[in-house]
Structure formats: C-alpha cells, structure tokens
Amino acid sequence: MRESLGPRLAHIVVVGGGRWGLEICSALDQVSGPDVAVWLLSRHLSADCLPGRARRVSELAELPIPGATGAAIIATAPHDHAETAERFLAAGWHVLIEKPAALTLSCAKAVSEHAGRMQRQAWVGLVYFFAPYIPVMRPYVRGETRWLLQWFEPDEEVRRGAFKSTQHHVNAIEDIFPHAWSILRAAGLAAPLELKRVDVVNPWSVRLQLAASKAEVEILFDRHAGFRRRCLQLEADGHKYELDFSEEPGTFKIDGAIAGDLPWDPAMRPLARELSAFLAACSGAAAPAMPVSVSHSLEAVALMEAATKAFLKLQARLVAGALPGGSSQPGAARVLFEAVSREAAMAGIRLKRNSAEEQAVKAAAQAFLGGRDDAFAEIPSEIGTIARRSPFLAQVRQERAMVDASR
C-alpha cells in the first residue's frame, strides 16, 4: 500500500550508488508519491542500473534548489557522511545519514548544530528502530539484567538478490556498533551506556563489554565468521529470552520454548517504515518517540569512537606479535590491509580488495614493519604516502619495539 507524503516535500535525493543506495531508491518507490522527484547522485553508476523512477545526477549543483521541500539520504562511505551531510544542510536539504552519523563525536555534534541552525531534520539511518519484532523484549526488561548481542556475518553473501561484501575500509565497530546501540535501545535498555572493556577475539572480531545502571551488556562482532547470525539474548528474573533475527522476523524464545509469531509485514519492511517516518517528519509530521535524530543519538557515536580507538590499539598489538620473530597469528596481513584501506578512505582513496593492489600493500606493509623504510617506494605515490604516514602502522612499529625490548 502506497503511503503519500505531505504537500511540502517535492524532491528526494539518494547520495551514493552502492548496494544500499539502490535499495533505498527501490524503497522510495513504495513510500513516496509519483509526483515526488527522486534523484540518485552518483558519479559511477550507469543509467541502466537505476531502480524505479530515480534519475541520476553526478553533482549537487545539478539538483533543484530545495527550499524546505527537499530530503537527502546520505548513503556514501562512512568517512564521507558528516561532510556530505553538512553540504546538503548548507544547501537547504533535510538529511538522513546512514549509520554512522559520523566517525567522531565532534563531527556528529557539528552536523546536529548545523541542522538546528538551518531548521532542518537530521536523522541517522538506524533501521532497527523500525523493526517491529525488536520491542518484543520490552515487557521482560526489569531489575538486574544481562544482555548478549551476537552479530556475525560472512565476508560475502547475497541479500535480497544483491551481492553484499564486508566493507574493508570500515572496521567492525564503525560498521556494526550503531546497529547494536539502536537494537538495545529498541529492546528496552534505557539507561545511559558506559564502555567497560574491549577485547580482540581474533584479528578482526571484537567483544565489547558495557554497563547501564543495573544492566550488564556483552556484544560480539565478527564480519568474517563464514555464516550469518543476529541474536539478542536477555537474562532477567531467572528467565532467559532470546530473539534470533538472523532472517527477519526470526524467532523469539522464552526459556528455550518458542513464544508465538513475531509482528512482521513483508510489504512494509523496516527500511520502508524508516523512510516513511523520515519523509513525513520532513513534511511537518511529528518525529517518532525514539532517538533517530543525530542530536539524540550522540551517545552511539561517542561509544563507537572510544571503542574504535581501543580496538585499533589492540589490533596493533596483535599484529606486532605476529611479525617475524613473534607468535604466528592468522589474518595479520588482512588486518594491515584493512587498516591502511580505512586511512586511505579518509583521504578520499578507495583501495580494491582481491587485487594486485591489495597484495602489494600487504607485502609492503609487512616489509615496512620489518624495518624497510623504502618498502612503499613501488606503490603508487598517493597510496604509498598514506601508508608511510599511517597512524596504525606507526602504532604497530611502536608495539613491536616494546615486544623486542621485553625479550
């Protein structure tokens, strides 16, 4: 069933032509009226790949001046989110920024303040707030509670007919923690969260331990698990509640027994529900009673930023021990490539996976950490410069020196 927009909204632009940007365009066909112009801003996507009625442009200047009638959905690489949102806010657009809103708390605050000055909506794409099955946990959240959230996925998979692969230029915490935060909040965990501990389970997976008043929270992320698992467990009042939503809507169990069907409308999936609420708010409707705005979800960015810093330090220590003379640690070369890819993305350069470029960067990084200062001489100049100045590689070298000094 098509939901119409309010009369004020006339233009919607999706920024970013990746898998998620195309999925957003398809969902917009469902929740926006035929009189609303839908644009896709992408420099690389060919016209024959455009879904629905979207029209492609390659620059912000090609779009109409929105006044108060334009909504932009930012689905670029996470390193571009804050800057792109600022550009669209300055041009007068409402914005929904796919998670994370920004990689640092200072950037997220700047976006929030800019939206306030412009009197525009600034939301974060926390789609699990709109998953109707998550709140099934709420009635059981009382007293002292223990939470466990598991988020595992393979390197590559096909989701709803589209190929999906791990974002190697974004680490696991930046990629997944905003989802985890919104899932816990939607499930009824209301108290402020405090990061207690970060552990590296293997070179690329991580365990977070948090606390919130009378609640203890453990979160496990692994983007190279070889299988897909999304599972939220709650222990309260001597009972165990488990919501497995690996495939939506999933199953809900109480003490191991399935507790009925979960609320689900396949014709109105969470993304469509989220976009519908956002577009309605842009047209003057009240925002939902959940922390979907950038200003109300700053806690997620602060926790994500702190956890990322700790995670990178632990990864550096792990890789340092895997260098020649250290312990054998599978995956160290992959960690090096993903770390350099992340730093390159921040400089606007995207490194390619499964390529000669990847192999060259891995080999040069390991040689550099082994003491060869000229290891990046044969790498293309921009990438070589980024790698030579890499904070992560510098941290690995520092950790390696400490390992050698302790022997």
Describe it for me?
α1 packs across α5 (270-282), α4 runs antiparallel to α6 (298-322) and α7 (332-346) packs across α8 (356-369). The protein has helices at residues 19-31, 81-90, 105-118, 172-186, 270-282, 298-322, 332-346, 356-369, 381-388, 391-406; strands at residues 11-15, 37-41, 55-57, 70-74, 94-98, 122-125, 145-152, 156-159, 162-165, 194-202, 205-212, 215-222, 229-236, 239-244, 251-254, 257-258. By secondary structure, it is of the alpha/beta class. The model is unreliable at 1-7 (pLDDT under 50). The protein folds into three domains: 11-125 and 271-290, NAD(P)-binding Rossmann-like Domain (Rossmann fold, 3-Layer(aba) Sandwich); 133-264, 2-Layer Sandwich (Dihydrodipicolinate Reductase, domain 2); 302-406, no CATH class.
Draw up the topology in text.
Elements: E1 11-15, H1 19-31, E2 37-41, E3 55-57, E4 70-74, H2 81-90, E5 94-98, H3 105-118, E6 122-125, E7 145-152, E8 156-159, E9 162-165, H4 172-186, E10 194-202, E11 205-212, E12 215-222, E13 229-236, E14 239-244, E15 251-254, E16 257-258, H5 270-282, H6 298-322, H7 332-346, H8 356-369, H9 381-388, H10 391-406
Parallel strand pairs: 1-2, 1-4, 2-3, 4-5, 5-6, 7-12
Antiparallel strand pairs: 7-13, 8-9, 10-11, 11-12, 13-14, 14-15, 15-16
Helix pairs in contact: 1-5, 2-3, 4-6, 6-7, 6-10, 7-8
